Amino acid sequence: MATDTPMQLGMIGLGRMGANLVRRLMRDGHRCVVYDLDESAVRELEGEGAVAARSLGDLVAKLERPRAAWLMLPAAVVQPTLDQLAELLDPDDAVIDGGNSYYRDDITRAAQLAPRRIHYLDCGTSGGVWGLDRGYCLMIGGEREPVARLDPIFRTIAPGTGSAEPTPSRQADGTAPQGYLHCGPSGAGHFVKMVHNGVEYGMMASIAEGLSIIEHADAGLRKRTADAETTPLREPEAYQYEIDVGEVAEVWRRGSVVGSWLVDLTADALARSPHLEDFAGHVSDSGEGRWTVRAAIDEGVPTPVIATALTDRFESRGLGEFGDRVLSAMRSEFGGHAEKRSRP
Amino acid sequence: MATDTPMQLGMIGLGRMGANLVRRLMRDGHRCVVYDLDESAVRELEGEGAVAARSLGDLVAKLERPRAAWLMLPAAVVQPTLDQLAELLDPDDAVIDGGNSYYRDDITRAAQLAPRRIHYLDCGTSGGVWGLDRGYCLMIGGEREPVARLDPIFRTIAPGTGSAEPTPSRQADGTAPQGYLHCGPSGAGHFVKMVHNGVEYGMMASIAEGLSIIEHADAGLRKRTADAETTPLREPEAYQYEIDVGEVAEVWRRGSVVGSWLVDLTADALARSPHLEDFAGHVSDSGEGRWTVRAAIDEGVPTPVIATALTDRFESRGLGEFGDRVLSAMRSEFGGHAEKRSRP
Amino acid sequence: MATDTPMQLGMIGLGRMGANLVRRLMRDGHRCVVYDLDESAVRELEGEGAVAARSLGDLVAKLERPRAAWLMLPAAVVQPTLDQLAELLDPDDAVIDGGNSYYRDDITRAAQLAPRRIHYLDCGTSGGVWGLDRGYCLMIGGEREPVARLDPIFRTIAPGTGSAEPTPSRQADGTAPQGYLHCGPSGAGHFVKMVHNGVEYGMMASIAEGLSIIEHADAGLRKRTADAETTPLREPEAYQYEIDVGEVAEVWRRGSVVGSWLVDLTADALARSPHLEDFAGHVSDSGEGRWTVRAAIDEGVPTPVIATALTDRFESRGLGEFGDRVLSAMRSEFGGHAEKRSRP
Amino acid sequence: MATDTPMQLGMIGLGRMGANLVRRLMRDGHRCVVYDLDESAVRELEGEGAVAARSLGDLVAKLERPRAAWLMLPAAVVQPTLDQLAELLDPDDAVIDGGNSYYRDDITRAAQLAPRRIHYLDCGTSGGVWGLDRGYCLMIGGEREPVARLDPIFRTIAPGTGSAEPTPSRQADGTAPQGYLHCGPSGAGHFVKMVHNGVEYGMMASIAEGLSIIEHADAGLRKRTADAETTPLREPEAYQYEIDVGEVAEVWRRGSVVGSWLVDLTADALARSPHLEDFAGHVSDSGEGRWTVRAAIDEGVPTPVIATALTDRFESRGLGEFGDRVLSAMRSEFGGHAEKRSRP
């Protein structure tokens, strides 16, 4: 099932994502030149058939023109690597940024490389640690010609049509049904990926909230402290359920309206850790959610659900503490409610 | 691929859901007695092999003991039908409410039927108009024995294990991997279904908000009226994208973290109506979302995303109008902002 | 400045609110019979001129007919006290519940007392620990006649017209400008008080959030850990302010649009505890916020701000922890994000 | 009651705010030179005692050195005016921007003027159309020396200590108790004003939501269409109140916890327009709310209430329509819910 049109690609950054992209490409008959600061990562892929590069210059030297170099790097390292690379590349070469860069940086970078006629493509890449077998959803921005030239690469990385039923009302054209899409000019790929992650925040929060309601469906069975500060449960008889949250996640995977990969993953985590004791619940946010809300505000589009899902992550990390203390202070002032500091 | 253990079931209510349940059951070798106020619906299923009943009494007469009668009725009709049915049934018969009843009503109903030893099961049924082929996700509440007795029925209606990959970390036990689950005592099934719909509200809202941001990514290309009441877009150059929302939904279906049945359906709708001109956007809510938020509040569980998704539906139907006018009034008072009535 | 029409009132419950109501009434020339389980509270007010009662029966015996008895009790004690009292009172007597009862209980209680022709008034009482001098805002529900009869009592308790400038566009009629209002039939008083508290939640949250943004305006001065899980601040130069939050609260008290009693109280708390180190930030909610959101949902009125303010209080008490762990689990599943349990 | 230290100020921009600032200053004994593109505005204030300027150059010529020029202009006009003014001013002159500029622009502007040793102060000014008599709350950013030099001006414009009771726990120092505050270096004034407006959004939304719940407390009296798409009200007997919202706003003005200038203004609007029929409810947002949420996100501070209040304003102007149509489309897909376009 190898590709009809084998190509050569340079991969810079061999973390989990970068290494698996290389593997998926090589499986399908593409040739890869690989580079990472960590030599052992380079050697491992060399052992699997990739051509090892000892430096950025070496990588560039080993690529045929017009070159294609894919960056799969932490956001903070992209710009310096790109600066260095720009000195080494020739006109008509292409760089693909496959990480989670801010789309506004893409616009700037593409403009900086344009005078040298180096093509810069931004490629939002979704799929996580499962992409090697499952394929990666690709959201691409940049000029039309280099995107078309690299089509065999994108096609191999993407999941392919077989990974989901065809959309009934849709005519079978374009690349979207294969799991990759040229979304528009520079930045469009990361713009769509950014919003994708915003949607992800909201969906994750919905699932988490729902499962939490089910986990606490036994509220009527628990003793509550009866004091002036705590509302008693009016109808404890309506909250007497001890429901297995993991079983619920599992049953929702089939036939239900909320069926989704996120529910699949949740069911898997709950199968291992039935009350999720293994997790701290300090939920990071890595930029895209913030940028999504900012874009929505700039556009004047109401996105209260995504905005709330974002701020909830801040809450989960304790960042709302000062605000909470303001509330305690006010309650103490007007009602004499004693909420003196109990945290050590 | 017929069932090993054919059973007989009475179906009361032959709307789209009820009729398709009967078809799915008969396909698998079960026998069905069917009743509806609309005689043509009865006759249609009779033509497909079901036994027609002319009345509730007739249906009860045609069922073998211990009987199993499934109600698939609008919420408002469940109680009167049940009252009538209770007079006709015998001890050890079972009634399954497959509609969207409030779980608190289930608790009451089961208690009312208990003295006659009639079993009442509540069965949340998800799958919509696609369930005939895709199967229905079933969330069941009630006593253990009648749930076990009716297992062949639930197994046929549910999607089956083949409808999704196995959960890697899970041992292959229980019925959840087949798409049906006995969640707990009376009401537990509709409780889980209620929360399911709450999760659905949040997921739908997340997707809708995200696609809306993408649809408006051309904000920098549009002329904005420049007046004191409108904030100018500070960086119009960052909003110059004309992105095809339907293509985005399609590409998200494969390999992405937001992959879900709801995205599948959205892609389908957008394939037919690229800017959704066919839809009014007055989004109904049918009870479960409201009940979900109420349960969360009773339990003291924070569910800001689901709550916001719910209130947004109220907004979409214009129910926030008075509040908006209060805001206009205040702004007029303190700032002299003229926002006089422009609606006819 | 004593009242023209001195009356007699029985006060049951001599906590801070009840005791201060008695003092405010006696200052204005009314006579009070007082009762509490805590004898020292009774004796203290006896020393200030009240008539002491040793029991509910004694209190009833010492009141002239038609009697007026005001309950100022924790929510949980209202019903049993009322049951006992109902046995002792005579037709045409009136009971006023001045606490924070759920308005639906008022409807039930009034109906239960109606056959004995005992009048039950629900009276939402706002003003907290400051009401003795400042007066209390009263929101009253119940029949017209007893409300009218007790007008001198309400008038004394309320702040009076002098406590705020007249509303320019308003004609000087009714009692609202004096700070008390007959809102409607049974339950209407506590309904309005319930919503008042819901509004209070939202206003408090707004102020707390705003001050928190100002407290953190030095974000660009702080070192942030640079790892893949933490978004770096893109423009640290825009967050270099070390602003004194207490001074801000103080300046907002005068002439600003956000001027309010809550800002007054916040300024006072910050004057004593400049970073609110004295407060834990575990914010209780005492029922009215929950009931407000439930009422909004029943009515189909969008109240996302009040709902969010409510669920934030749950968050402040750690009730969102399970949901947060679901998020951590999902992130771990799809991205290999390590968020293992760090809490002890 | 004239100021002890009369000063001279140039006012550029004689809209409602600018003109009233001039009047308030002149009342207190300060001298003003005034300029506006609209000559009639200049002439009107000349008639009241101000010195008229025919151009920016004329204004600068008529001011004594070191000059103080206050800009009270629409945001879009500030930069060009400032550019022109910078050419005319001399070292040690000061410009005060009293409008609603984005604080990041202040930082830039101050830096641009620094080489010429022209001082740039940003001064957030709250008080709306009522400030002439009530005074304006001033939040000031910039260098210490020019702020100190202009103290008599700020003191006159601010409301003064008499406008609110002293904060009990506070020592009587600083200027905040008079209603003006030097918040910090350039931008700090508009930063605090920006957040002030964010708080204002949240408070306004809370009040609006609460009054809307009260307005709809008669939900149980209204006929609802009974169809599958509409949830019937379960307990109509709990929503039988016809409460006068204007009276409620009035009573909340005195003694209640929600007492605030915004409630005062709402009561006034309701006194004129009892159901607010005069207002369209298309609520503008003028930048500060958006910037506030952006600052919160940058800082990582959770502000779900302010964010929701902002997005609700977008909703009120119909900007959520595309998202709503996505929801309709999904519901149509999975449930066959007919929600075809009904808007003309």
UniProtKB/TrEMBL annotation, chains A, B, C, D:
UniProt xrefs under Pfam families: 6PGD (PF00393), NAD_binding_2 (PF03446)
Keyword check for rRNA processing: no
Segments passing through the bilayer: none
Record has Oxidoreductase as a keyword: yes
Keyword field: Gluconate utilization, Oxidoreductase
Residues forming the catalytic site: 193
GO MF entries: NADP binding; phosphogluconate dehydrogenase (decarboxylating) activity
Biological process, per Gene Ontology: D-gluconate metabolic process; pentose-phosphate shunt
Ranges for region Disordered: 158-177
Domain 6-phosphogluconate dehydrogenase C-terminal: from-to ranges: 189-313
Family named by the database record: Belongs to the 6-phosphogluconate dehydrogenase family.
Protein name according to UniProt: 6-phosphogluconate dehydrogenase-like protein
Protein source organism: Streptomyces bingchenggensis (strain BCW-1)
Chain's gene name: gnd1
